[in-house]
Design brief:
Two copies of one chain form a homodimer. Chain A is mainly alpha-helical. Chain A has one domain (6-306): Farnesyl Diphosphate Synthase. In chain A, 75% of the residues lie in helices and 0% in strands. In chain A, helix 3 runs antiparallel to helix 4 (66-83). The longest helix of chain A has 28 residues, at 189-216. Chain A is globular and about 55 Å long. At the A-B interface, helix 5, helix 7 and helix 8 of A face helix 5, helix 7 and helix 8 of B.
Chain lengths: 318, 318
């Protein structure tokens, strides 16, 4: 049995939104307010939708796992609240964030409270190994972010090193979202492994697409300035691919930019495009999207499987 | 059977230190380094010692629960790492912290990673309800810290309001340390409740003593400047008690100090002492220490019970 109707994915998404709007609340009003603000700022709720699709793919009723799905989004929200904590250096460079309104101290506490609140609920309501999967995932996310901090401005970062960071900081939560949905839906071990593998490949492609949008979109589309990653000295996949194809002049120019910020970020982005950074990134996204689709092989055919494949394909239309 | 010998408490403390020095390690070298630095800075390891005494009070072998005990200290360390995150305002007031060396971003990530690492280990190695007790405790700690932030400079904070904050931000972890030790040691429900109640009363008295030391000790003894709580506009129990006994002039003076920082902190501390703030705080500590001792009533007599009572009594000698 595969209970998910194609139109139901839209209905499930609406249920997630409705849950956040009307049911979600913590015992701490400041935290509840901060979370609702963050949720209202946008987002496609991909993580909870992935959880619900995994539940459906296992043949169970996704509407019974709305809370579990919501926790996946809330882990993401908690990491976003903590991402907003700024350093002194950042304030000098004029970075703006939630922390500006609430203060760093409150941002740290609100994120901590949210993590604790999620684990409190998950340990009370879900069997092993779900609480363990979620805490291990949070460790991976933090580990990935520390690796990313250490790799800032490092033009020797390899594609493999980049993928390892993306796998930990981004894909691990997509993998956990699918894995936990599969477990809660009573999937077989083979199905659980397949859905987790789908989530991981999807998550890596998702991060690559995010890097690509940073080079091409405007502030209105992605909600942050173009080339924001470059300004933050992140070595993203378009940079790695442009360096691979490019010449020593490009390398020297990027090196100076990361060190001194001596050029307009739009000019740097244009050079990366010119050296094939976007084309190669599109190809990498296609590889991981294909890997995600292939991972679905052991999943029984039906609308949930189709919806998951469509999720992956949507990453290609950037 | 009560396996703890009186001298063994010293040996257990040494085992905790040894565990941190030689065995403790996470997969993230930056986090391991930050934790070891924080542990090397001092501390009496009261939380893990409480866990091990609770194990012994239940009649089990405490040396088999060293890891569980260590997690209690590490939760404390993770909150300290996050306490070091500074606001812009703080940097203007010249506050110094670990975050100065590592940066706010790294402090946030290191604390997050440590929380996640602890929960990952606890969910893998300990049965219900231990993982739930620990995540609920972390929620309490954050909730208490948010309440404390909201109460900064509020001269209308009552003793009840103060105790509620202390119970959440400080005593909850002492209570959880004792509770989890009791559970892991196979204590009866009555013993578990008694040891948790001991931890809570002990923790409240501990916080009151900490407040008192802030008024009386010098930088060398407590590792931070005298009157640090006053500078941070915390309304601690000596302040509440002095206001209760004091006159409207004291209230106006404190109000001005919290608003404008217009007086030397040592002069303000002296006024609080003069209005009986310390005497009344000593009395409150004695009340909660007595409550902690009374909570031990259901525990079978023996060296572990005696060691716990001695722990409580040690808070009286400030």
């Amino acid at each position: 049995m595969n209970v998910l109707d194609v139109k139901e994915e839209v209905a499930l998404h609406a249920m997630v939104e409705d849950f956040f709007r009307s049911t979600f609340s913590t015992d701490n009003p400041i935290v509840t307010e901060a979370v609702k603000r963050m949720l209202a700022a946008g987002g496609k709720r991909l993580r909870p939708r992935l959880t619900l699709l995994a539940v459906a793919a296992a043949g169970a009723d996704p509407s019974r796992q709305l809370h579990l799905a919501a926790y996946m989004e809330l882990i993401h929200v908690a990491t976003l609240i903590h991402d907003d904590v700024v350093d002194r250096a950042d304030t000098r460079r004029g970075v703006n964030a939630t922390a500006v309104d609430y203060g760093n101290r409150v941002s740290v506490l609100a994120g901590d409270y949210l993590f604790a609140w999620i684990f409190k609920n998950v340990t009370a309501g879900y069997p092993a190994p779900i609480p363990h999967v979620l805490s291990a995932t949070l460790a991976d996310i933090c580990d990935g972010e520390v690796l990313q901090l250490r790799a800032l401005g490092n033009l020797d970062l390899t594609l493999e090193g980049y993928v390892e960071i993306a796998r930990k900081k981004t894909a691990s939560l997509f993998a956990a979202s699918a894995r936990c949905g599969a477990i809660a839906g009573g999937a077989t071990p083979a199905e659980i492994a397949a859905l987790a593998a789908f989530g991981e490949a999807f998550g890596i492609a998702f991060q690559m697409r995010d890097d690509l949008l940073d080079m091409t979109s405007d502030r209105d589309t992605v909600g942050k300035p173009v080339g924001n990653d470059l300004t933050e000295r992140k070595v993203t996949i378009p940079v790695i691919e442009a360096l691979r194809a490019g010449n020593s002049a490009l390398r020297a120019r990027l090196d100076r930019f990361y060190r001194d910020g001596d050029a307009a970020v739009a000019a740097i982005a244009a050079e990366i495009v010119q050296h094939g950074g976007l084309t190669a990134t599109h190809a990498a996204i296609a590889r991981y999207t294909e890997r995600a689709r292939a991972a679905l092989e052991p999943i029984r055919g039906g609308p949930a499987k189709e919806a998951l494949a469509a999720f992956a394909d949507a990453l290609l239309s950037a």
